[in-house]
Amino acid sequence: MKKLLFLLTLSALIGVSSMQAADVLTLGNADFETAWTGLTDYGDPEIILKKVGAIATGVTGWTGDVGNGGLTIYQGPGRTGSNAAVLVNTDDTRGCRFYNNSVMTLTKGGQYKLTFYARGSATLVNVSLFQSGKRPTISEVTGPNAAGVYDATKTANSPISLGNTWTKMEYYFTVPVASAYTDYKLYFAFYKTQSPALDGSNLNDIFMIDDITFEPFVDNTIATLTEITVGGKAINNFNPNTTTYNILTNNATIPAIVGTPTDATATVVVGEPVQVDNTIAYEIEVTAADGVTKKVYTVVFNVTNDVVLQGFTSDLLPAGWISSQTSGTNDWMIDQNANYNNGLYMGSYSVRIRGGGAGNPSITSGWLMIPNLDLPDLLTFYMKTRVAGTSTFSVYKRPASEATFTDLTGWTLCETLTEPFDATFTEKSVSINSNQLTDILFYVEKEDEKIPFALDDIRITLKDTTTGNTQTSASKVIFKTSKGLLSFESPEHVNYAVRTLTGAAVKVGQGNHVSLRLPQGFYLVEINGKTQKVVIP
């Protein structure tokens, strides 16, 4: 009989300084040696396994959940004792859950280590903790989710191929200090395993787990982040092991950058911005609790004069956008059902016209307007098909007007796209080519109750009207910025103008060594007619 490491004695509680009095870390039948129920023999000509009849109750202390896949459980030979759990889900893409019935009470901010042994092959969706009051979906087990706790160093949906060697697997969890939960259960999710052959010929390849321990753990060398937020919005697809992130921006103010440490006792320092041409880089240095281990993340803003919507970060239409309404409800909406992220934009939402039906107003046509764009040249966006149907998607333009949309009178057609569109997000470009202040209109005609498409990462490129003497351009000028101070040096005497992003003049003059005190923000610096965007921290 294997020793259950989860039945912690009083001496163990005293010996682990990081464990709180409130911690309850007991996992039932963690070595699978407690008697199972409802077993039948499996194998021919020899019995090689015992098959579980009811996966929800057959493994004492554990629950097998079919989920999206077709889970089957067997009792197999153990690593150190008699039994191990053989978990079979042969589905190629969809995971199923296997979880312990015990509720563990953990400490907010506490660090814990999960150890188990595995053999065979599978695609491991994830191993995570989830608040005990709800059985999570597969995507919630995968994470991230506010009700779950995850090992940020692990990659979801990772194939493993261990053969017949019992291999130690370790996961490290830190319960967020701000978590709304302290009671958790342990979940395994997996797919793409092999089903055991009757003759046992593939016994070395079937997926088994055994000897699970869960204990307090103090690691003072953790120097990673769990997320980076820019202007209060989390960077999409953040990975603690990826240290550089590029964001396209034309923001007129410097967004606040915040890094959240994996270990609450680590320190995080966001450095001063470093500008090179049209890029502005911020370094985020994370120092582990040991004061020695460090990791540096870099957020690079690629500054552009384009009108850029950095994806969609909430379910609200951007300020200034106007859409048609049916029964007082916007015909266009933003949701998370289909989003695209090309690495330069932020947000996990996309915009689309409502489907109508099912209690919603009937919508067969609708419009969405982006007003008052200064010299728009090219409209670029990503589009994918949501629901097949007959739809027409058109882009129009008109001279900017205070009037809302009533009909297409006065509008000029730029381009019409007709379904079928691509089933995956594909970049589309429409020429606007306007020399004046302009309104842009998306106009859709569609079948009722259809959601024909989703749009994301919309970008509008403005015309470059810069002219003038180019003997000395902004690219040859050395810019230096510090808090409240802009200075630049030129190899020759130049005419310069410092303006806000709206074009208002801040300072106009001549010289080759210039130093100016300015409020925080972005500015346009014209050097002999050529423009450079700079940031004052």
TrEMBL record:
Gene3D superfamilies: Galactose-binding domain-like. SUPFAM superfamilies: Galactose-binding domain-like (SSF49785). It comes from bioreactor metagenome. InterPro entries: Galactose-bd-like_sf. This is Uncharacterized protein.
